[in-house]
Amino acid sequence: MTELTRRDFLAGTAAAVAASALPSPALAQTPRRSGTLRFIPIGDLKILDPIWTSAYLTRDHAYLV
Question: Is the alpha carbon torsion for 61, 62, 63, 65 positive or negative?
Answer without folding.
Answer: positive
